[in-house]
Amino acid sequence: MSNGPVLVVDAGSSRLRCHLFDSDGSIVSTSAAEWPYLVEPDASSMAKAFDTRLLWQAVVMAIKQCADDAPDHMEAVACVAVTSQRQAVVFMDSEGKEIYACPNMDLRAVFEGAAIDKSHREQVYAVTGHLPSFLFAPARLRWFQEQQPEDYARIANVLTLADWLAWRLTGVLTNEMTLAGEAGLLDIGGRHWCNGLLGELGLDKQANRLVNAADIIGHVMPDVAQQLHFKKEVPVTIAGADSQCGLLGMGVVLPGHIGIVAGWSAPVQMVTARPAFSPQGRTWVGCHLLSDLWVAESSAGATGSAYQWLADTIYGDTKDPFAKMSIEATEAGPGSNGAVSMMGNGAMNMSDLGMTYGGIIFPVPLTSATGGIGRGHLTRAALESTAYAIRANMEQLEALTGDRAKTISLGGGMTKSELFERILVDVLGRDIMVDPVPDITALGAYLCGKVAVGDLGSLSEAAEWASGRMRTLKANVRDAAEYEELYQDWTRLSNALGQIEL
Q1: Cα within 13 Å of Cα(461), Cβ side
Q2: Given Cys at both, which of 121, 281, 336, 386 links 351, Cβ 3.0 to 4.6 Å?
Q3: What value does the CA radius of gyration of the chain take, rounded to a whole number of Å?
Q4: Do domains 6-242 and 251-434+470-502 have the same CATH topology?
Q5: pLDDT tens sequence across 241-262
Q6: Fold type of domain 6-242
Q7: Where would I find the H helices in 70-193?
Q8: Which fold has domain 251-434+470-502?
Q9: Backbone angles phi, psi at 52, to 5 degrees
Q10: What is the pLDDT of residues 99-122, one digit of tens each?
Q11: Cα angle: 456, vertex 462, 464; to 5 degrees
């Protein structure tokens, strides 16, 4: 690797982060900010929107914090690379004023999305590779069309969150390919705008220029550069969707290879040479950062979020809850003394998404004969459940593509737990490749920045560098055999709970 540091703006699901990478790919400074949300008194309880004024202030403050912590590196920054959570979108008018900005958690368009799927479900999936519609931009456009028609008439640009951040930096309006696909705006097979579908839905809107990850879209505007204390003209690239950036950060760029970004959620993505659609619409189809590849996705759900909830709930009075959880869960041993967690889904089924029962189940009565159930057993059960869900979704992708995974790579915040890594490799019963640092999405964005300025020749070359960092973790034969039986038990229980109607 060579000459210039890269500043990464990572607008993830849990919070906004900025990372300053040195020229060798090490993080020298990091800052974070919580998401600033709007108070919408008249909105439904399912609605969630960003306060864009406060959001931009948070971005500026986070970047300045990185600059304060590593001023020499900041002065030499060669590129700014922006990535963001998927499904988050910003609608703007022709004068550049934000009408609406939402995170991926905004569910205001549930009914509008259901109406789209009732009339166009098969077409929506065949074109965009994504269901159900209420999660994506077209349904949110329909919501404005029906609920706030005056605002709908003003919408001139539909951006994803990273596109908007890049626009605030450069003044240039573009849409990055992988993010547009994850927002439900692309004909996924042709990698172009799904204008035909949008027109049929009565949602004709102006489309911006589509760009690929690692394209330089512009440079930081002079007034913004002054605000951020940049000393020179700095190019900006949109690094793509956060999960796809994670794949690049793990070097997962060949068909048949699987990457798992286990953070707030745990998407399992297999690289494919062509779009792989599920006959029942259970899985998603997305674009890979490399322009001739796609990804088939089957997500284990909000596993990291559930683990955070568990930490807050039963370890809330602990100074370092995750360290304590790891110690106690390690002592619990495989199988968690009969405790079984169901805090996420099994194999993803986006064609029939609904609420199901979950929780933590354990043998009763609780007597000394069972050895008791403590916090460590509940914690280990949650980690085991995450591993089981990842395996179920990986097997679904293998069945869909008819291709057994050639390699399995793991990254993301959950890799901070060595116990989780150990449980996962034994549950899978296969070797996995693990990245040495958890900030795998930011690393992928950093690599896009290095490609953008020519320090690396291509995204493929960047992936080769990334794969050289990975370490191999091998399954323990005895524990893998025990987990095979436990996984089958968990699968039967998961299927049974899925039959209970709320």
Answers
A1: 12
A2: 281
A3: 22
A4: yes
A5: 999 999 999 999 999 999 999 9
A6: Nucleotidyltransferase; domain 5 (3.30.420)
A7: 71-75, 110-128, 137-147, 149-154, 161-170, 177-182
A8: Nucleotidyltransferase; domain 5 (3.30.420)
A9: -65, -30
A10: 999 999 999 999 999 999 999 999
A11: 125
